[in-house]
Write a structure and sequence with these properties.
The protein has 26 helices and 15 strands. It is α/β, with parallel strands linked by helices. The chain folds into 4 domains: 139 residues, no CATH class; 133 residues, Threonyl-tRNA Synthetase, Chain A, domain 2 (2-Layer Sandwich); 263 residues, P-loop containing nucleotide triphosphate hydrolases (Rossmann fold, 3-Layer(aba) Sandwich), CATH 3.40.50.300; 80 residues, Winged helix-like DNA-binding domain superfamily/Winged helix DNA-binding domain (Arc Repressor Mutant, subunit A), CATH 1.10.10. The longest helix has 27 residues.
């Protein structure tokens, strides 16, 4: 029987497979660490030889080094010791090549400088004996003296050596200049202002001009009075604690401190829209607002940076504070994390940071959008005042010229934040009592009053509390009287007003179509500047309280109107701002939330409420009094802002000035509807009075066709759109037709002309 042939590629049966030999694997950065150890051995030998101890080898080695670089040999052990420490502090346990080259150049220049101290710097014999700069110093000095004299050569060496030191330790030259300047200025200030011992302001990286004195009391409150603050450099001097494998900041790594010491004012007045009918309208002056300003006090940034790094070490996380952003209410410490650590491990340390730093609350942003850092936001010891006038006088406000632009406040770096409501195009605002949402509403309204006449802008204000918007009663910019309180009469007016807003919105779209396919209000103004439609801003306070107070029929009408405005209002120039204390999903339903991407979250009670406004938690850790998180369609993650402040006295003063220029300019159609007692949706009493001779014909057409709309009457009767819309309004008021129901035609409530009384 023949042997079975084995397939191709199969090993012979009688040959056993060889096992691969075991390999030896070295730990990461093994040779780099060995190099640091060998450098330490060389340093030890040189040090012993310089003091003629240790035996023949160290002594001969030291003589050789001295003959080469002279007295610089005594500096090498110090420099090498620093370099060894730096090697083991680096993530990859090695020094960059640029640092080694800079060190060699520094030693070369030092040898040349030592050589210049000799009576005859050009004497080679003396240098070879180890005096001055040695043979290397003799070469450098001799070459330099061939071009310049000795004083200039020494000056050049010193300048170049200082530059190399700054490069090695990553210190910006400006920081040195600022530190020296602050030192002399602070000494001068202390000598001349001994009577101001209670001044607790501090100067950090140019944070506050004129506040250069460090209060001894503030230093005592900070705890460790022995720790030195390096204002310009921000040098860390913490001891190396924790495990050896963790990333630690180098002893002289600078912390970049960013702060807005002064908001840049606009060079020219802010342009405003051109009034149409109110041609003599006088806009309020910014100077009539209060100008209270004082800077923030973040405390000892270096001490807090050390506490942050110590907290990270407790949880086995590596990271160093690289940058500090001093904001008006909080200071953001930017941590450069060790590679390979998940961001989630940082995000859950807010309570630990608050405990170790002994502060009220801490917010963590991991990572900071657009930056390779993790942000730890810590409350300042004292907050910066943020007035409305400060924003309206800023360069940022002048650069944004939209009529619906409004001031928001200062961001985490102290820069003014300005938004355009037309771009948002609607806004949700939530926050507990005292968090600042009502002040934000006043800031928004006041900002727009500085740029709009009553012909440019109309407000619809809903105030369930009855006292938040009382200053705006009878203001010329109102489309209707302020809806105040939650009585059945006021809620009935609210329903009628919102239905009017939706009908006005639909009417504008009909006009856009009739005028040749215009898409939005701004295009209509450009094409027909003499027929200006004002923008409409609907502001509803305590929305949840209103919904709970409405009857079922009116509740459905109000929620439908609010949702339709959010869906279609932008292009028609209709915008809404909805405010509430406790946002819930049942009040902010899916379609409404989908069409209002912008949200201001002031301090709320729970993470769930924060999620409803900004789509993530964080607002529950805010501090109140204008501290907020802001999100828009253009922002992927919320931004922290300290909202601007305007008090009731300023609002009253500005609005009173506007009232003196004009009586209320309410919309006549809306005002007539509010004065009519007909229930929403029609009633049993049907009136037939009208001053328009086309009214009877319009009613007949509606009955015969079973439908009614302004565009339909315009086509059938050959009248203008404005007249047709007025006829529709009158038929609805008289109970002939029902209210508009979305895209469906209006319901005709009567069947013959005989029913008209």
């Amino acid at each position: 029987m023949s042997a079975k042939k084995r397939g191709p590629g199969r090993p012979p049966k009688n040959k056993s497979r060889r096992k691969p030999a075991a390999s030896h694997t070295l730990p990461p950065y093994f040779w780099s660490q060995v190099g640091g150890i060998l450098l330490g051995v060389v340093t030890l030998l040189l040090t012993a030889g310089l003091f003629s101890t240790g035996g023949r080898l160290p002594i001969q080695f030291a003589r050789l080094v001295r003959s080469l670089i002279g007295w610089t040999a005594f500096v090498i052990p110090i420099i090498f010791t620093i370099q060894i420490v730096q090697i083991f502090r680096q993530p990859d346990k090695r020094m960059p090549t640029a640092i080694w080259i800079s060190t060699v150049l520094f030693l070369t220049l030092m040898s040349g400088l030592f050589q210049l101290t000799l009576a005859d710097p050009t004497a080679e014999v003396i240098a070879a004996r180890g005096s001055g700069g040695g043979l290397l110093g003799w070469r450098v000095a001799s070459w330099t003296l061939g071009f310049v004299n000795l004083p200039i050569a020494a000056f050049v060496y010193i300048v170049l050596m200082l530059i190399l030191l700054l490069f090695i330790f990553s210190i910006p030259p400006k920081a040195v200049v600022d530190t020296v300047r602050d030192f002399f200025q602070s000494n001068t200030a202390e000598a001349s202002t001994d009577d101001k011992k209670d001044d607790d302001s501090i100067k950090i990286g140019g944070l506050q001009e004129g506040e250069l004195k460090r209060d001894r009391k503030a230093k005592k409150d900070d705890g460790d009075g022995e720790e030195k603050k390096h204002h310009g450099l921000g040098l860390l001097s913490k001891k190396d604690k924790g495990d050896e494998g963790e990333v630690r900041p180098r002893p002289h790594d600078p912390i970049e401190v960013n702060s807005a010491s002064k908001i840049e004012k606009a060079a020219v007045a802010t342009p405003v829209s051109t009034p149409i009918n109110n041609s003599n309208w006088q806009f309020p002056k910014v100077t009539e607002l209060s100008d209270s300003r004082h800077g923030a006090n973040p405390g000892d940034v270096n001490k807090r940076a050390q506490q942050i790094e110590s907290t990270l070490s407790e949880f086995g996380l590596g990271g160093s504070v690289r940058k500090v952003n001093v904001g008006p209410r909080v200071t953001q410490y930017c941590i450069d994390p060790q590679r390979g650590i998940p961001m989630s491990r940082f995000a859950n340390l807010d309570n630990e940071f608050a405990r170790n730093l002994a502060v009220e609350s801490v917010r963590i942003e991991a990572p900071i959008p657009g930056q390779p850092y993790v942000g730890v936001e810590i409350p300042n010891k004292s907050a910066q005042s943020v007035s409305l006038r400060m924003i309206l006088e800023s360069k940022e406000w002048a650069e944004h010229t939209s009529p619906l632009e409004f001031a928001v406040g200062l961001n985490i770096t102290g820069k003014p934040v300005v938004l355009n409501l037309a771009d948002l195009p609607h806004l949700l605002i939530a926050g507990t009592t005292g968090s600042g949402k009502s002040v934000m509403m006043n800031v928004m309204v006041m900002s727009m009053l500085f740029r709009n006449t009553p012909d440019d802008l109309k407000f619809v204000l809903v105030d369930p509390k009855g006292n938040e918007m009382s200053s705006y009663i009878d203001m010329p910019h109102l489309a209707a009287p302020v809806i105040s309180g939650t009585s059945q009469e006021e809620l009935h007016k609210l329903t009628k007003t919102l239905l009017w807003v939706t009908e006005e919105m639909d009417r504008r779209y009909d006009v856009f179509r009739e005028k040749g396919g215009i898409k939005k209000l701004s295009d209509y103004h450009k094409k027909f500047p003499d027929d200006k439609m004002p923008s409409i801003v609907v502001i509803i306070d305590e929305y949840t309280d209103i919904i709970d107070s409405l009857k079922s029929t009116e509740r459905e009408a109000v929620t439908t109107a609010v949702q339709r405005i959010a869906q279609k209002g932008r292009a028609a120039g209709v915008h809404e701002v909805i405010m509430m204390q406790a946002p819930r999903a049942k009040y902010i339903q899916g379609p409404l939330k989908a069409n209002i991407p912008a949200g201001f979250a002031f301090m709320v009670r729970s993470k769930m409420e924060s999620q409803q406004i900004i789509n993530q938690s964080g607002a529950e850790t805010l501090m109140g009094q204008g501290d907020m998180l802001m999100i828009t369609a253009r922002l992927k993650k919320p931004r922290r802002v300290q909202a601007a402040f305007v008090d009731d006295g300023e609002v009253e003063r500005i609005v009173t000035e506007l009232k003196m220029q004009s009586a209320p300019q309410y919309d006549k159609t809306l005002l007539a509807r509010l004065n009519d007692d007909t229930p929403v949706g029609g009633g049993v009493a049907i009136g037939g009075g009208s001053d328009d001779d086309k009214y009877q014909e319009a009613v007949r057409i509606a009955i015969e066709s079973g439908q009614a709309s302004a565009s339909f009457l315009q086509r059938r009767m050959g009248v203008g759109f404005q007249r047709a819309a007025r006829l529709i309004d009158e038929m609805e008021q008289n109970g002939v037709i029902g209210p508009k129901q979305g895209s469906r035609p209006r319901e005709v409530l009567i069947h013959s002309l005989d029913e008209i009384q």
